[in-house]
Design brief:
The protein is mainly beta. Helices cover 5% and strands 56% of the residues. The chain has one domain: Porin, CATH 2.40.160.
């Protein structure tokens, strides 16, 4: 979930439609494989979650995993790709001490996470199978050991500054999917057969904008729109403004009301601003959700697009049974200007207020989160990232599930 205020905006659509074309073209079936591209990543991850409650134990894990991928060179515009994902706990703590976010409750997983057929022709792309997807409400969100992937059909077309994308999603896997059945693919939402999506994007030097529509069967119809305006004030000084809106409606309440006791319905609005100067970036963002009693908001499959989504908390976290609002303040510093190339450190503060129960408009919630993070790209092959999270429940005097510290560090080797 972790984000700074820099929002992916229309880049989400553009990156998703750029599905192929990285390999040399092949003239034969044999050349398609001999000219193919192998790639991969080895990742070492550590996590420690320390609840404030005295009766609760800290949980931890150290895991080794990553991915191995191969994509053929395109032959008549057609290419094939496959990637194997894995993660195994190295420490294998006892159940009461084990944190399952890195390697699932089984302390390991191994799966064919990507397996697709790809076709590209003059700006048109089509991909079928298990694949990475990055759109506002369905994204890879690589926050633990391996990213989310989706079983899907996705088509896109780019023309000048415009892009269009449509897709059908039937299943997904990853930490946010819950690591079902040894971390294998599971339904997008229990009781929902499928998800359809359609998006339009425009990107130029003046602005980036994107609009999306998602239909999650028997759950929600969701509209999302976003606009980002970058302004270059000087050679080393820039300002970025952004606005977003999501309007959601539950026209079925066949599954959602029975399972959650609430309709997935409401609207969310957001604004952001970011100022960058000499390697320092300061930002502010605000989200407001309009919710009635008996309603809650859909946050997407993955990290979600909302401006105030950070490491753990998201803008729709307390959008349940009553209006919700959240804001974040952030600052990052790229130390390249002082001679440490590739090192970036940052801090984000977030405040989230709203409802804790969809059916009880009097169940108030307020939680703050402090994120201290570091990202260091040592070379094209090696990188390190770490985050320390302090969460504090401001609504209740007694200790709750929202009172904890969480530390995570990852060492990555790309090849």
């Amino acid at each position: 979930m972790r984000k700074t205020i820099v929002v992916v905006s229309a880049t989400l659509l553009l990156s998703s439609t750029a599905l192929a074309g990285v390999n040399d073209k092949a003239q034969s079936f044999t050349e398609a494989f001999s000219n193919g591209t192998p790639s991969g990543q080895i990742r070492l991850g550590y996590i420690l979650l320390t609840p404030d409650a005295n009766e609760e134990k800290a949980t931890y894990d150290l895991a080794l995993g990553g991915q191995l991928k191969f994509e053929t060179a395109p032959l008549a515009g057609v290419s094939l790709g496959a990637a194997f994902y894995t993660s195994h706990s190295l420490l294998q703590p006892d159940d009461e001490d084990f944190n399952d976010e890195l390697s699932s409750s089984d302390q390991h997983y191994d799966l064919l996470a990507e397996a697709y057929l790809n076709y590209e022709l003059q700006g048109f792309t089509f991909r079928a199978g298990r694949q990475l997807i990055d759109t506002p409400f369905a994204d890879s969100d690589d926050i633990r050991m391996t990213p989310h992937t989706f079983e899907a059909l996705v088509a896109g077309y780019e023309w000048k500054d415009f892009s269009v994308q449509a897709g059908y999603l039937s299943a997904w896997q990853g930490v946010d999917a819950g690591y079902h059945d040894n971390a294998d693919f599971a339904d997008m939402i229990s009781g929902s057969d499928d998800t359809w999506m359609f998006g339009l994007g425009y990107s130029s030097d003046l602005l980036e904008t994107t609009v999306w529509y998602y239909s999650v069967a028997d759950v929600v119809n969701a509209f999302y729109g976003e606009i980002m305006v970058p302004i270059e004030l000087a050679d080393d000084l820039s300002l970025t403004f952004g606005a977003q809106v999501s309007i959601q409606s539950d026209e079925t309440d066949l599954q959602t009301y029975a399972e959650t006791g609430a309709r997935v319905e409401g609207s969310l609005y957001g604004v952001m601003a970011e100022l960058s100067f000499s390697g320092i970036t300061a930002g502010v963002a605000y989200n407001y959700a309009s919710i009635d009693e008996g309603e809650l908001l859909f946050g997407g499959f993955g990290g979600g697009p909302f401006f105030t989504n950070i490491d753990t908390l998201v803008a729709n976290e307390f959008a349940a049974g009553q209006d919700a609002e959240s804001y974040i303040l952030s600052i990052t510093y790229d130390l390249s200007d002082v001679g440490i190339k590739g090192l970036c450190v940052g801090y984000t503060y977030g405040n989230y207020q709203g409802g804790a129960e969809p059916l009880d408009s009097a169940a108030n919630a307020e939680v703050t989160e402090h994120d201290f993070y570091l990202e260091y790209t040592l070379s094209d092959a090696w990188s390190v990232d770490a985050v320390y999270v302090v969460s504090d429940d401001k609504e209740h005097s007694e200790t709750t599930e929202w009172d904890y510290d969480r530390a995570q560090a990852r060492v990555n080797f790309h090849f």
